[in-house]
Each structure stands twice: as structure tokens, then as C-alpha cells.
Amino acid sequence: MKKQLKYYISLFVIVVAGLTSCEFLELDPTNEFERDDYYKDRNQADMALAGVYSKLAELYKEHMSIWLSAGTDEFLHNKLASSTRGSEISKFNYNAFNTDIKRIWTMSFTLISRTNDLIYNLEGRDTIAYMTLEQRQAMIGEALTLRAFSYLNLVRMFEYVPVRTLPFVDIAEDNGDLHLKSQEPQVVYNQIIEDLSAATGMLPDEPYAFGRVSKSVAHGLLARAYLHLAGVRVNGGVVGVEECYSQVVKHCNAVIESGRHSLLDDYSEVFLNQIQEVQDNREIMWEVVFKFTTERDLGGFIGNYNGPKVGGEVNDDPEGNPLVYITATLNQLYGAEYEETPGLNPDERHGWNSIPYNINFKDGAYSFPGDISNKLRWYGGKWRRVQKVVSGTNASGDDVYTARVLESGAINKWRTSINYPLLRYADVLLMKAEAVNQLYGPTLDAIDNINAVRLRAGAATVQELLASEGLALTQEQLFEVIKDERSRELCFEGLRRFDLVRWGTLVEAMKEQNTLIVNHPDYDPAKDEFLTYPGNAVEERHNVFPIPNDEITLNKNVQQHPLWK
Fold first, then answer.
1. Pick from 176, 91, 88, 185: nearest CA to 562
2. Is Signal found in the keyword set (predicted)?
3. What is the value of pTM for the model shown?
4. 3-state DSSP call for residue 486?
């Protein structure tokens, strides 16, 4: 016999009819109502969907954004910072009892549970007041995309995970429905592909609100899923590596040929839009929306923990408390540690992605004590809260600097309203280039996509870059260019660790980084040794994360990953 689980779902007390895109994503669950009283009209369905997006924001305000970028060859944890947040993940010093890993697992499955409930109810009701069939299908497509996105994160982190597509409605007394077994990675990828493929036929060309998904986003995520399925950990599964790359090209082309997305003219504008709350989905196709106001804190830590150091005095100063440094590897990728490579144009991305100075604020004024001489201590600048600007010259003719606060709206010492990118058009171009090169070698199609990204940054073409190094344009050399280019363009955007794992180079990359660090002219073993902790600790098992011990204790059908037994 089965017993009915008294199921509750979060409901929002704010009426959503007529809300703007920003307001939709600011909804916050405050009360609970039984399912029988829910999903009766479009307002309630909108509230449920907003509850899914709110869990996404919770995941990305620091865990999936900052800590998965740290501990790579792009970012390293700042041991000198007072906070230890994320340090175990960043230093490869974690196990199945790590609280940050547990939070990622729990929040991800909570998000999935909310999507399952939404899909179940939207598909299962004959009518929903004030909602057309087209609107209902689009909302189901959004839920499918969000579920697939969560499973894509989970399978890339843990590989063997349970797959649930139904809500907790009826639970058998033996808890058989509650305690699902872990599935092989291929099974998880099959569900991801099934969900996203269905979503492409349901979603609108333009999202219903900024920060929500569209048809192009589903195609872009399908390209990402197939690219990782082709990686060395899964090796194409039953689909096969070649077919995976063909699917990457297909879905990237769907985005490109839609004509709805393009590269912005200026690299810095991409991130200034996020800092200044400009709603523009031409290049950033999908982003997590954060919003801090004096009445409600729905902010994140983007630009605070992963930006430059900025002193502050009161709670409404745009303080920066960086917990990460950019790496010697990333410095080197731009050429001669951000100095112009002889014979080539300098890469404009270096000036935006790095901050080589501290910013002080005291007595109502900003000051700059000078550049940071140790290049191993430079900060990430992609989401800077404050910009250094020239205000004039002194009697000696030297530049005098002041600062401009870039954020708009209410400002808080700790929280920011800076958004975080989940899918960029530049990534689509680079994914296609990689897949085309793997299928056909260094064709003009592959090269043109890379050059589009590089030329936007003022950098040399692929041909000029390889010629300057005396290298031939081969499939292998172009693959190396693509791997480097993904870091130059997409650094700090939560992609690098997953890229290194799918290429099978995580351990190698971290070891090579250690060599760069200890041979760096600014390296001081007495002060900088902590920068080598990740490279010293990394092992083969760190290609995956351990399944949280609490999950294994509660669910006997879930087994620990073989690398962590």
C-alpha cells in the first residue's frame, strides 16, 4: 500500500501579473501552500518557475561561480584572506564530508525537484486559468532546460548520480521511489539530451524575461552537453565521439544562424553590462540575475570575492574582498605576462581581466598606493566594482588617478547586483571551432570562428600567432590554440575545470602551473608557497568530486565514486 506524501511547494506572496523581467527573477519564496491549491492560474505557475530560478541564483552566487573557478590554472585561492570560504575545493583538499560539495549536491537536487513538480503539474492539468497552451509549453521548455542544466553540472562533477524526473507525489512505504540508485554517466547524458531536445521545440525565440532561457540557450547547452560527452571521461558513450562533435556543430549552427546573437564590439562592454545591470542578451545569451536593494537582499558575491581589493568604511561602500588571485598560467597565455609580444598586437583582454593594484577608500576619497609588484598577487578584474581612471596630472606631469564606481542601484559592502554568465556567444563560436577541428582538421570554418573572438580583442589572428611561434597550422596545433583561447576569452566563468577534465589534462595543467610559479621571478617560497598547494595536492581522483557522505548514508542505493572509495 502507498501513502500520500503531504507535499508542499513554495509560493510567493507578490502578485506576478505584469511584473517586469527583473521583478520576475527577484521573487522570493515566503509562504507554503498545498499542491491541491496550487497551479490553478498563470500567476501561481509563474511563482513556481521563479522558485526554480531563485535556486539557480543560490547555486551561482558563490559555489558554482567562484569556487569552481578557483583551484584551476586561471584562479588560485588567496590563503592570506581572512575567510576560508571555498578554500578546500580550491586547494584540492576535500573529501566526502566537505560542506561546500554537500551544498552543491543538495541545492542542485532541490532545483531539479522544483522543475519536476512544475513539469508534472503543467502537463497534468486540463486547464490553467489565464495561460494559453503556447505559454504552458514554453514554461515546460524552461523547466526542462533548467533540469538538464542541473544534471549537466552534476554529471560533470560526480559522474554517477540518481536521475529523477517525477515529483515526490506518492512514495512507497519501502521508500523505493525516494531512494533511487546512481546511474551511469551515459544514462544521465541521455536524459540531458532528451530534455534539451524537447525544449528546443517548446521555447520561444526570445525569453519571456531577462535571465530566463530561450530556444538559442537550449541549443547552446546541447552543444555543451555533447562536447563534454565526447570528452575522455565518457568518450562519446553509446553515441560515439564523432557523432558528438557533429551534434556540437549542428547546435552551434542553430544559434549562429538564428541571427539573434553576436559578439559585442568591445570585450569590456560584455561585463560592464553585467556590472551596471544593462539587459542585453546579444552576447551573454543566459545569465544568473542578482539584485541587492535596501529592502531585499537577493545579491551575490560576484565582484566581491572574485574582483580587485577595494577598501571600504561603511556598509554602502563597494568593498572588494578578493579570495582569489589570477594565475601565472593565465598571465603567460596573454603573452609575456600581459606585455606585448614582439610582432603581434597586444591582447586587449588582459587589461580587463586583471587588476595589478589595490584601491583604498578613506575619508570619502579613493587612493591608489601603487601597482602590485608581485605579479603572482594580481586580482581578477572581469567584474570590477570600481574602475581606476585618470583625473588629471600633477606638477611633475604624472597622471593623477581617481576611481569611478561602476555599479548602479543600491550598493552594499558585501553583496552585489552583478550578474554571472552561464552561456556566451563567444563560447558557442569556440565550441564549434573545436568540434570542426576534431572532425575535419584546421579548416577555414574553424579558424574563422576563433579569429572572430580574437580580433574582437585586438589580438593577432590564429595564423599570425602560430607563425610568430614558428608552428605549422595543423589539427594538433589548432587544438592547442583553442584550449588556450577558451581560457583567454572565458576565464573565471566556471568553465575551465570542466574543460580540463574533459580534455584529460587537469592534473597535468596544475603540475605545469606549479613549475611556472616556482620559476617565476616574483616567487618567494617564504610567502608564496601556498600558491603551489593545488598543484601539489591534485591527483587523478580530483577529476571528479566525491558524493557527499550524508547522501550515501541516507540512500543505500547510491555508491561512492570508485575514485573516492
1. 185
2. yes
3. 0.92
4. helix
